[in-house]
Batch of 2 targets.
Target 1
Amino acid sequence: MTEKGRNRIAAADRFAGCMFFALLMLVLSSCGRHNGGSGQAGNGGRAMDSTLVIAMLGDADYLNPVLGSSVTSGNIIGLIYPSLLQSEFDTATGLVNYIALEKKLRAVTPGQGKKTPKGALAKSWRMAEDHKSITYILRNDAFWNDGQPVVSGDFKFSYKLYGNPVIASARQQYLAELLGADKGHVDFDKAIETPDDTTLVFRFYKPVPEHLALFHTSLTPLPAHQWKNVKPDEFRHSPLNLTPLGAGPYHLKDWKQQQEIVLASSRKSNLPKPGNIPQITFRVVPDYTVRLAQLQTGAVDVVENIKPEDFTALLRANKQIDVKTVGLRVYDYVGWSNIDQEEYRKSGRVRPHPLFGSAKVRLALTQAIDREAIIDGYLKEYGVICNTDVSPSLKWAYNDRITPHAFDPAKATALLNAEGWQPGPDGILQKQGRKFSFVLYTNSGNARRNYASVIIQQNLRSIGIDCKLDVQESNVFFENLQQRKLDAWMAGWSIGLEIDPLDVWGSDLKKSRFNFTGYQNPRLDQLCELAKQKMDPTGARPYWLEYQEILHRDQPITFLYWMKETQGFSKRIEGEELNISGTFYNIDDWRLRPSANVAL
Amino acid sequence: MLSYLFKRFLIAIPLIFGVLTLTFFIIRLAPGDPAAFFIQPGISPNVAEQIRAQYGLNDPVPVQYVKWLANVLQGDFGRSFSRAQQPVFDVIAEALPITMTIALLTLVANFTFGILIGVISAIRQNTFLDRFLTVTALFFYSMPEFWFALMMIILFALKFPLFPASGLNEIGAEGFGPVEFVLDRLWHLVLPVTVLSINGAAGIARYVRGSMLEVIRQDYIRTARAKGLPEKVVIFKHALRNALLPVITLMGSSLPFIFSGALFIEVIFAFPGMGRVTVEAIFARDYPLIIANTFISGSLIVLGNLFADVLYAVADPRIKL
């Protein structure tokens, strides 16, 4: 063999070596955590016909109801585990209804109430006359996937886990009314009694309204027989977390972390029934553009939170896509420090903020901001002007007599002049030598808030207010907000379906952790307390009406807009109902239309 | 040579340790809180406190450092805060094979195409072909990867649906046979590896061209031609071998890339590789995972440089270690 030939062979060997190593890695990476099932799917196309694919932004943190705290976790846990009651948001009234097999909290408005009660573990319940205990009668035909019955003991066992400080469950708050909670430690032996396998009694230290008792006692149970030997300090990293044992319409088939979660319909489930779609795959697709592209190509069937600016192109590109909206639960606002934060941080003294301390100035700021322009320019028909933090969707409590503060720069200027703010030589308003100049902070990575903040800056500049913009990394922004280091900021809240605003507006600034503005109004505190004492939520309506009037008058923050959540669906899904309580609220009833191009 | 290697290893230990210590303090002093997620309305204020206690974050930083040091010296880098308390090396062990697959395929493509294009440009210097290759290479070299990736997706996944836009496997791939499964995986790797290697190859081609041009003008090349050697032997045996010295530096410095991952590509193509692990750990303030990642990439940078130095000696007998 010639030298040339030898060299060529050696080079080819080296190249082949590299390729071999790369392929070896490929096989290794393919082997990963692969405990997938047998080949029911012959090829990709046919697998897609029996599989619903949902794109998600991030992986579930835990598939354990005691620990799971991300939205994805919540969605999946709801499909795997059984629940004591079914809950349903009544869009006609804005109230949440709780449903047991043979009992409902309230009568269902005609046209509502599509949720079957068969998913509930409770047959019925009885609230004590004094509202200090609630007794559930459980059905006796519910079984975990391993064949063991679901019994009242599972609930008592699970509540002890929820309340264990070593486990640090994010749902401890649900136990706040149980016996002993007022003294710091729930007395589980007395607070939760299980006289037999189908009777479950919760006892409270104070009278609790029925809807709240139902809400707080229906935390998802874990199977006690599977978890009883796990020590609390090992709970968070127990291998059992990777193989959840449930009883719901679906069970976990495969979980490739950070890639996908595959659920398969549980053939034997009677809570309420096996899911219609044989398999549901939740795929992690972190990039928004790629999620959109995948919806367009049909690689995924559901993408949540599509930005309004993408609708037209998406619907034009693929006729098999439908964009559905639901709301209103989320709003953006501009926060103004009502109190001098620096002074409060240093000495704990509450003094009005030099710029935003006066309600009239805050009102002027709201009137100076063209909220309609932000909605027209960005959210379009998916945005609604926001007056207060009571959502128009909560019809039973919403005050529809409030007229939004209109965009009126002239009125705003007049108000500011009356408050002593006069234009200085540079055109910026001044009062006692202080310029009306501040920095408006917001968190990074939010195109909508960036858009809004630029309009706000222009609006304020036109009435002589100097507003600088600063974008901070979300973690840093949130920490600064908590430490009261920001004077003005733009952020948003997602509201709960029960109105409980004391955390955000309570006058006790140490207790109200989210009162970042420092707004204090004793009447508002009083109204919240009065509303809480009503055993029937609708009885609190007059208090909530007044509450909204006060917020509208005092403008502790400038409420900007409510946003409809917009979800993209493939039209091959049938039977989906969107509800404010969640996109996947009736997913066990969805069906898939088989694709036309697959020969069956 | 061996004593040189030994010395370099000895120096590397305090260096890596210093990097880790610095990282330890920087991430703890930076704003942000690993328990921040649990501070929201509806969650008891106790939860964040309990979580911090579990993570041992309530101790003063120097005490935390001593405890951490004791654990690290026993090889225990702790459990991840943000990923269901998995041991950090388990998290890394899951992400590493994926990253390495992409990186190795990319590197092979990078160097093969880079060297090839570089050599062609050099021997056809100032021709149309050279100018065309140079302009094209510069065009791709200066293109941001994430943008290029999105354009490739629009072109090859949306307009002409030839390749999948993301993920490692097709839905239902768990039912495939082993060959079909690997082919499906390769099919999913085409776009990301192309994006990464076009960009990288363009850079390498510039290096090779420059260094080839220098070598081709040397006297010994003229001698080789004068003694009647075929042009191929002159170029590939006499010239290329000498021209590859700077490329070896590049090879050494790409070692950390193999393990640290390509963030944008991983995010866009939804690969759960090292890049995403690192960045998500930083955003979640997952201290143990950040430190473990720093340890791995720090060690690899040191090793990569050492590897390059050794390769110099192998490629060029004039260099003695």
Target 2
Amino acid sequence: MSISRIRTLAAATSLAIALGMAPAQAANVFRFAFQGDIKSLDPYSLKESFTIGMHAAVYDALITRDKDLNLAPGLAESWETPEPTRWRFHLRKNVKFHDGSPFTADDVLFSADRVRASGSSFTTNIPSDAKFVKVDDHTVDMVLSKPNPIALYQFSTWYIMSKAWAEKNGAVAPSPVSASAPSYATLHENGTGPFVITEHQPGVRTVFKKFPGYWGKVESNLDEAVFTTISNDATRVAALIGGEVDWIDPVPLQDQQRVNASGTATVMTGPELRTIFLGMDQVRDELKDSSVKGKNPFKDVRVREAMYLAIDEDTIAKRVMRGQATPSALMIAPSLYARSAEFKRPATDAKKAKALLAEAGYPDGFTVPMDCPNDRYVNDEAICQAVVSMLARVGVKVNLNAQPKAKYFAKVLAPNYDTSFYLLGWTPSSQDSHNILYEMVGCRTDPKSSRGGWNLGGYCNTKLDAIADQVEGETDPAKRDQEIMDGFEILQKDWAVIPLHQQALAWGVSKKVTLTQRPDNLLLLYWVSKQP
Amino acid sequence: MLAFILRRLLQSVVVLAVVGLIAFSMFRFAGDPVNQIVGVDTPVSERTEIRKSLGLDDSTAVQAARYAANVLRGDFGISYQFRQPVSHLLAERMPATLELALCATVFALVVGILMGVYCALHRETVLAKLFLAVSLAGVSLPTFLIGILLIFLFSVTLGWLPSFGRGDTVRLGWWTTGFLTVSGLRALILPAITLGLFQMTLIMRLVRAEMLEVLRADYIRFARARGLTTRAIHFGHALKNTLVPVITIAGLQLGSVIAFSIITETVFQWPGMGLLFVQAVQNVDIPIMAAYLLLVAAIFVAINLAVDVLYTIVDPRLRLAGRTA
Amino acid sequence: MSLASATPPSRWAKFLDSDVFASFRRSKLAMAALAVTVLFFALAIAAPWISPQNPYDPAQLDLINSNLPPIWSPDGQSPFLVGTDDQGRDVLSAVFYGLRLSLVVGLLGVLVSGTLGAALGLIAGYFGGFVDTLIMRVADVQLTFPAILIALVVDGVAKAAAGGGLDTNATIGLIVVSIGLSFWVQYARTVRSSVLVEKNKDYVQAGRLIGLSSPVIMVRHVLPNVLGPVFVIATINLALAIITEATLSFLGTGLPETMPSLGTLIRTGNRFLFSGEWWIVAFPGLALAGLVLAINLLGDWLRDALNPKLQ
């Protein structure tokens, strides 16, 4: 070995000691892995639970939600309603953004404009008719045109951005949809939250560090949190059990026993707010890619009932979901609607389904294609396969087209609505039934309105729309619940959609870690602590 | 000789141009990219505007020329999934793939040569037959199955080695390396073996075959007759003569190791270009797919060119005749 | 003198009474490999009659029977000899049908690539000149990429173009084409070099003299003489094609879970390997490994037998 080679080697070794080892030992680092990526650092880019949770670590909202999902003060210290259509927010003083600049009313006004600008996917987070008025540097008014009982319900995921920073970095518009240049805000953050992002490699790794200038007291004892994407189920579980990461989401159903038996980690389960359901195209006059020509069988209520009755949700919950799902009669989770218990799922009845199909003129059934995501919900593709085999037994031949979510959503969502039969999951971001009645099952006849925007099957009943409008303005809680009930009854009578279940959350958590899990499935770093 | 190198250079350029054309035609074939870029609720007017800003309304020839010009400037467009320049994404992940490929190749060379020599010298022993059988299994089992089995054995059951990722990396300028930390080196072992196994098998069989052939050659018989020790004959003459083609093949295979890493990287969640490519295929992220194809082609062409040039220097006959293959 | 007698005996005929065949009878390994291959082919052909269940008919699957272990464990149930998967699909039936798919895809893939490669090789070798240069340059470019990469790209782009609405037969067709386009080069190169040797031989010249057209000479007289090496390549490529299909399916761009090939079964079962439901991945894995290993052994022996230097 030559001298120079020895020298190089020695240099490399000392470099390794200097660079590689030092940071890992001192800090209390929480390592966590999710099956997907942090989609964008721009808090108005994409409404996706995991990404929203990550934004909450670096950005603050005016009003946040506590561990029981109740509204709690955030950047607004307090608020009141001096008139039924006016909300007054008193902003916290001495709050600093991560770049050191102070937080003021101007930032709130700027964020209110930005979140409703084109390109934002959070436009519905604040009421569309809301006007924001600056009273002084630390007081802001929101003025609406009519009373609104749920005006603040989605404030907790409307994060406040810095006006000066956005202007300086050309990020005034929410992450532009044009592909010519990626927005500064998609790759950088400047919030007021308890953590700062020091490194962000999309699809690989993101590093959070504690923000020393944070205005509040933080429950978490972490110095640093390192996020990695691990999309492969088996690899993710192995990483948790092997102690390479402290938290994973989701733990595949079949691996939960093994995680619990590992001794190093446990599975934290809880009910999730998301409802998994099936929808049928009721708009087209001829069903796409079906054996039925010239008409659409799903326009016949008997066929929809037959589809509903043929699918044995109890067995799906027990077998495919291994008991980690709650069969649901409604399109909303029981915890979000007080009178949920009054609804019952009609019992599975394959014989009756066959009879109904024969009555509707399809004694031998028909063929229909089905769209299904295969990387979005817990065991989504397996659920679809089970549905396929259950429908096959009543004569309905389903051609399953299971795809990654990116391709799936591009096909089935607006403006194409290119689907005949689909599986979808939905959490009302307002935590309220109105969102279901309006966005999921409202008529999508008016292209300018956002009503029915997620109603992929295009079911339409004007009576239901009228009820939805009543619900929106109703301030008496008992009356409101009754109106919602009327709406859900129409849905069930029309067999408009086939609700399946609410899936269970399943986080894999190292025994060294304590944290809080809410039914909205957000991982909130400020409640995470780890034994050093 | 200069003329020969120039001709090879020209051919390389043609090859790259053809691959570029294929890469570009992928964009045309895969449907409207606007749908990939915009959000769900983007109105038609905005879509039209984006179409225009991307130049999708121009003629195919104009678009192809623009693509070529952009590629030559190192601009492969913006990824549909990540909304980031593709060149940036690839550069970020290249070190991971190159380090993995290098380790796999070294592993394949060292183990492959050792096993090959043993098999050639001790043809009839049980161990040699076992090596051959193992090597055949190495070719037969799909890479992903081998990877999963290794993870199951060494990560889950025994708990010796990490099952995913690169471990801690150290940043040296724009390059990130896993060679300088313990966790980085440990993370390399299983993926490198998985990726290198196929090449190892190939090299082992090649060494064995070449050795057997060389051992029959006249000059070996002559050396034996001269009374040289068996050891000197085997390693001084036979192996030395075997190594030239072996190393050539290993070099030529480096490109396919890089390309083959797509499977290994998927199994081990290795944050390299291969994983990026697989995700791009699943999500129809054409700019990444096209750029990756071009990159692999460029690596291949560069390696082939280098080998050709080296051959002309080493082998005087070629200086006169030039190579055609 | 007739042309036929001018033609040397075909390589196939030579093969049968040559030392190649003798060496086959000497090699126990080759005979075992052949036996295994034949067994797998038989199972694949007989699948519809010997399987307790048609795994591709969703009406025959019942979730009640999902995730049953093999029959020899306490929870095993008849008739599910080696257990069921998460949809209540009988693993053994799925393996039989999967073998069928693997072999169909593999054979068709080899057929497509072999035909394409042999045709292009014949043309290149026989005509030479510009055509030859063109074809061989394309082959060079193609060799730049490993087969799996090409198959992935062809598959991905075609699916994107089709908008995801492909039915199963179209998917199989697409995979066959992907494989065909990925593996033709080796055939083309081999056939071309053989043609270059053959075309200067007397019998070809004789054929020209008596006015036979080029296609007739090529197909009837040159082709049979280059079939030997093509056959060896085909055997080895059959194994490669099967692996390629399995890999595509494993990466999620191959056959769908409703019509699983061995690769799809392994991808599905892989999810359950860690949770103790090992039989879903183990049996398809064994079948795939066994099949490919047997074919490879055959091909390997065939190559050695045809290359007397190594004997």
